[in-house]
Design a protein that fits this description.
Blueprint: H1 2-15, E1 32-37, E2 52-56, H2 62-65, E3 68-75, E4 83-93, E5 129-134, E6 139-143, H3 145-152, E7 164-173, E8 178-179, H4 184-187, E9 198-204
Parallel strand pairs: 2-9
Antiparallel strand pairs: 1-3, 3-6, 4-5, 4-7, 7-8, 7-9
């Protein structure tokens, strides 16, 4: 009797005696946005892995003399996720109730910041403006504070410390599928996941 049971178990293992179909088994590969921040262009020290740059209000010419620069590309799951385009959105945001500390602190591995730099979830909201639909990658971006203010109709005279401009992305796959939100953990700058679903620039006032 025991030999029959063992034989049945082995046959089941070999031929996958599965009685339940799970939703997660029908997965498909999708691409994720990839952002490379030019940390050298930031007015204040930052790290490329933090996906955040800074404008320094202490400079009287900050609105035109300082640059926020970055590059947009995508991770394609090693060629298994074809991308048609990425929609780029921009929005101006007032400081959150508990903004991240500055100077930035790296994790124990000294690679990523030890806390997220912008609020989650990273979804397109009513105040976010569609900037463009990118179809050729990688795409380079460079903005002054005045240029970002013009794009978002923001009055720079009302800007305060820790207010920020934030870029977000919607990935459009080759089959037309729109990826409008990723798991929050994947978008957290402190985790170093292969998903850069936002990049931004904050205002500081440091002399």
């Amino acid at each position: 009797m025991k030999k029959i049971s063992i034989l049945s178990l082995l046959i089941c293992l070999l031929f996958s005696c599965k009685t339940v179909d799970y939703e997660w088994e029908n997965f498909t590969y999708v691409a994720t946005p990839k952002v490379t921040l030019n940390a050298e262009s930031s007015a204040l020290p930052t790290f490329a892995s933090a996906k955040t740059s800074f404008f320094n209000l202490a400079d009287p010419d900050y609105s035109t003399s300082q640059k926020f620069e970055w590059e947009l590309d995508y991770y394609d799951a090693e060629g298994r996720a074809d991308v048609e385009a990425i929609e780029v959105y921009i929005g101006f945001n007032r400081r959150e109730g508990n903004p991240p500390v500055y100077p930035l602190v790296l994790s124990l591995a000294e690679v990523h910041p030890n806390e997220r730099q912008f609020p989650l979830p990273s979804v397109i909201r009513a105040n976010d403006i569609l900037l463009e639909r990118v179809t050729t990658f990688p795409k380079q971006y460079s903005f002054t504070a005045s240029e970002l203010a013009a794009l978002t109709q923001t009055n720079l005279s009302t800007v305060a410390v820790n207010d920020y401009f934030l870029f977000k992305f919607i990935v459009i796959m080759a089959d037309g599928k729109r990826i409008v939100q990723y798991n929050d953990n994947s978008c957290d700058e402190s985790r170093g996941e292969l998903c850069d679903c936002r990049v931004g620039v904050r205002f500081k006032n440091i002399r």
